[in-house]
Amino acid sequence: MTLRQRGPQTPPPQVDAIGAEDKTAARQAFHEAVERAIAEQMPTSGPLVDTFGRVHTDLRISLTDRCNLRCTYCMPAEGLDWIPSQHLLQDDELIRLMRIGVTRLGITDIRFTGGEPLLARHLEGVIAAAAGLQPRPEIALTTNGLGLARRAGALVAAGLDRINVSLDTVDRAHFAEITRRDRLPDVLDGLAAAAQAGMAPIKVNAVLDPKITGEDIVNLLRFCLQHGYQLRVIEMMPLDADHNWSRDAGLGVEQLLELVQAQFALRPDPKPRGSAPAEVWLVDEGPDNPAGTFGIIASVSRPFCGDCDRTRLTADGQIRNCLFAAEESDLRALLRDGSDDDAIEQAWRAAMWSKKAGHGINDPDFIQPDRPMSAIGG
User: Which residues of this UniProt protein bind [4Fe-4S] cluster 1 (predicted)?
Assistant: First the structure.
């Protein structure tokens, strides 16, 4: 997709990510930002667009920043300073924002993330509320799989359509080393329960962390093919809490692809990629594997920003127009200051209107976001 600039960009109003003390000032800032965006020809109805004409139909909602694993590429062993509970969106606030997104902004897909969303006790209720919206959105979940075995059936009954499970290796010792928890059997049980509950497709997300080897990925792909799961390997991005990311650490995408091609017969998937983040290959049937697919999400080395259709809502009510955005737009302040749906809709539109052409990771002046991935949501 070729990006097209339709007008000057106005940065969204800047509000502290954990809440503005002066709600009146926050509300006034949003009104001023909306007025500027409208003056710059921002549509006040119809699809949720930016100045480049990208249409955002995919809403990613982080339900919590907490997690029960401590993956080395994500957070330190002791965890992080969690978002205070009073700053988290309440169920009624979250459901209201989902309704505005679906009925006013054209959201067609909702994915719940974390942190670890299965730690949210209200998850089934929120999924049911999303499933009750008209027109009904597709509903997906990204999880580490811990606790999935006992909740998969209830999640499907609530309305969950699809699931992605994060799993970097099927080597138990290596899993424990990466996650700092010896819980691989629980994750595998969760995957099996998701399949038994009828979720499809089931995707497995593996991060190309420096600790991951070619053997890890080859064995993981063979496991996924044998069980009917779809493996997607994600290039590590600068979203780690320790800010130790390096583009030269570990396996590169091209090296990984060579290692996989040495073990499996791959053919590029002829289907159009559209806004999907993964480059997909068809895997032919082999001596010890059925046919299936294999994907790589190379956000750093092969960015796909020109086709991005995502808008992101953090657990504390901030809209982020990009994973790597330096700014956030505080919808929670509007929710708690008595703003009506019209005001919240226009504030959301203004936040997305200012979305940049790309994430800027490869720019010399790129600065890693303050929030780690666990506090943004994938």
Answer: 67, 71, 74
The reply, when asked if residue 271 is annotated as ligand binding, is: no
Give the three-state DSSP class for 112.
strand
Query: Any binding-site annotation on 203?
Result: yes
71 is in an annotated binding site: yes
Q: Is 310 annotated as a binding residue?
A: yes
Element (H, E) at 131: helix 123-131
Separation CA 110–CA 131 (nearest Å): 10
Number of structural domains found in the chain: 1
Using a 10 angstrom Cβ sphere, with 0-12 exposed, 13-18 middle and 19 or more buried, the burial of residue 118 is buried
Residue 45: alpha-carbon gap to chain centroid = 25
Structural domain includes residue 192: yes
What is the distance between the alpha carbons of residues 7 and 342, in angstroms, rounded to a whole number?
Answer: 23
Residue 311 assigned to a binding site: yes
Task: Please check if 252 is assigned to a binding site.
Answer: no
Cα separation, 17 vs 39, whole angstroms:
27
What's 364's domain CATH number?
A: 3.20.20.70
- Known binding residue 229? Answer is no
Phi, psi of 154 (to 5 degrees): -65, -35
Prior bond of 201 cis (ω within 30°): yes
166 is in an annotated binding site: yes
- Is 121 a known ligand-binding residue? no
Range of the domain at 359: 23-206+305-376
240 belongs to a structural domain: no
Is 224 part of any known ligand binding site?
A: no
Tens-digit pLDDT string for the chain (378 aa): 334 343 334 444 434 443 445 556 656 666 677 777 766 789 999 999 999 999 999 999 999 999 999 988 888 888 778 889 999 999 999 999 999 999 999 999 999 999 999 999 899 999 999 999 999 999 999 999 999 999 999 999 999 999 999 999 999 999 999 999 999 999 999 999 999 999 999 999 999 888 888 899 999 999 999 999 999 999 877 655 555 655 666 678 888 999 999 999 999 999 887 778 889 999 999 999 999 999 999 877 777 787 899 999 999 999 999 888 878 899 999 999 999 999 999 999 999 999 988 776 766 676 666 776 666 766
Q: Is 114 annotated as a binding residue?
A: no
- Is 143 domain-assigned? yes
Domain membership flag for residue 280: no
